[in-house]
């Protein structure tokens, strides 16, 4: 301990976590948990739901059947539900422990300062669940004495949250990562439709390219010998209606360029209320689509994507990380690598619109069918 305290005086980051862990009571310790996000996102909801179920399965809480909110991407209600109903003797989801910047860059800094002040000065936090790139970046850059688990990041390495898949770079940090997740989506899409020209729309900035894992999409295109047709614009804006109009224009452009399929990347313009209009040019041209986001886009009209169960698996994986940390593991020593099972979601209404009759081998891989565009 003396050596560690001496190192602390030299401001070496990992000792802060080591000292905290060594002073922690064993066995019957109750861990106080907070949640931090950049803003509402449906992926966070489903991963958080999977996390809660995983914690129940591992006996860390009594009730993990937190309901998903209807017609909302907010996770605050889910957090409040867990605070009231989780039960158990190991984890407490603090009533005032939910932090969201609401996708406001100014609020982001306030949230960061509030969280850091609480951890370092109030000292009533034992673990942080960080969801998304903003939260991951803001907390990974700090020398914190508590474990931080970062979830739902497209590419934690590219985002600068961790230096490599093999090493998180900090003793208190672990960031679950599914290598080549989006490359495998494109390969799966190609297995079904054998397209030669794939269209994508995205924001051509470092953050925009990173948020959609453009490097993985390009790797898949090179491997397949597919031409990547691109339409770029500014989509990461507060005005979702304007983002949708820009995305609609991009889809019209991709049709004109001769796209044979379109990979729908993460995009502010893919709002539920605007999906039918935004996808109409592609449907009129009988062009199949695959959503990078997942089943929520399929509900609203995307032809294909991964099923919701795939996203929940990341949450269950994170529950295993929580259990290991509670048992004394150093987050840095935990493997962050996981791989979701292959299962798909299919919108049968969109399949009819584009004149596609799914073959039996595709239907066999589909876990979730949707009959309409909501």
TrEMBL record:
Name the UniProt record assigns to this protein: ABC transporter substrate-binding protein
Keyword Transferase on entry: no
PANTHER family from the UniProt entry: ABC TRANSPORTER, SUBSTRATE-BINDING LIPOPROTEIN, ABC TRANSPORTER, SUBSTRATE-BINDING LIPOPROTEIN-RELATED
Signal sequence extent: 1-18
UniProt keyword terms in alphabetical order: Signal
A matching Pfam family: ABC_sub_bind
